[in-house]
Specification:
The chain has 16 helices and two strands. The chain is mainly α. A two-stranded antiparallel sheet has the order 1-2. The two termini are about 45 Å apart. The model has no long low-confidence stretch (mean pLDDT about 85).
Length: about 300
């Protein structure tokens, strides 16, 4: 009883309030992660799942997937998809943020409209772009043919060379609002007096951008890129609805390949191993983000 009073005496009552959230996270996040790690160290397939015979095989599943050509291709596809999306959605989002920062007549309504892609359900967006990139009735081919850029319809989603372009375009469209709103928020923290002083000193727009805007936006840019990497690296539903990882595994990401191994090929342990590789990469990136955030608070 004395120790309990001492506990509350030092203002530790806050721990009691976070206890429900902690229990929730342990049940719905912690347990699945631990269970998935254990599953990846066993040999579980559709043959022995019902019988409950789960032989422990150590790291054999990880050795097997790293020797799997499709896994290596999925890893390369995931990195390519993530980097391409980050580049385009950041550049476009940055330009839009600079535009909206000027506060022209319809800046607020237009800024609100740009948030629509972010608020739409991912599955709805995937179906919309799947229809837009369809070979015969897609609006993309219609526009390109009308403008004279192509003579024959491009099979966007059934050709290995163009399927990745289609899913990147769709994900960039989704990610632009996220980049725009965060960068816009960062721009509001820059004092306008700095730009006014620079104008008095004769600085042009490019000099203001490179000497004032970008240096002061560095913490925001770092956060946007790291969070964008995390959100993009784990994309599943968009790619699965549009291409299901095809054609010829050209758009398979780690997330879609993990699903295929687990629920199409019924190799549950290998599927969980792929998911754990994805989790480990995101965990490392998340630690980098925490380090950047803590360093920004100290500064």
């Amino acid at each position: 009883m004395k120790s309990l009073k001492k506990f509350f005496h030092y203002d530790n009552i806050g721990l009691v309030f976070i206890l429900p959230a902690f229990i929730y996270m342990m049940i719905f996040v912690g347990y699945p992660i631990i269970s998935n790690i254990i599953l990846s160290l066993q040999n579980v397939s559709v043959r022995n799942l019902v019988k409950g015979q789960k032989a422990f095989i150590g790291l054999d599943n990880y050795v097997a997937i790293f020797g799997d050509e499709v896994f290596r291709k999925a890893m390369v596809n995931t990195l390519t998809f993530t980097i391409a999306c980050l580049i385009f959605q950041f550049l476009i989002g940055f330009l839009l943020a600079l535009l909206f920062n000027r506060n022209f007549s319809f800046s607020k309504p237009v800024r609100g409209l740009t948030m629509i892609p972010w608020m739409m359900p991912m599955t709805v967006t995937a179906l919309m772009f799947k229809f837009m990139f369809s070979t015969d009735v897609g609006i993309i081919n219609f526009i390109l043919k009308s403008a004279g850029f192509i003579k024959e319809n491009i099979e966007w989603l059934t050709t290995p060379g163009t399927a990745m372009i289609a899913v990147v375009v769709a994900n960039v469209w989704i990610g632009i609002p996220f980049n725009t709103i965060l960068i816009s928020t960062g721009l509001t923290t820059i004092p306008q007096e700095l730009y006014e002083s620079a104008s008095v000193d004769g600085a042009n727009g490019w000099q203001k951008l490179t000497r004032i805007t970008l240096p002061l936006l560095r913490p925001t840019i770092e956060s946007v890129l790291v969070l964008g990497f995390i959100y993009t690296f784990k994309v599943y539903d968009l790619v699965y609805v549009m291409t299901e990882g095809g054609p010829v595994n050209s758009t398979h990401l780690l997330s879609t390949y993990s699903y295929k191994l687990s629920f199409d090929m019924f190799q549950y342990s290998k599927g969980s191993s792929v998911a754990n590789v994805l989790f480990l990469i995101l965990l490392l990136v998340g630690m980098i983000y925490l380090k950047i955030t803590m360093q920004g608070e100290e500064d």
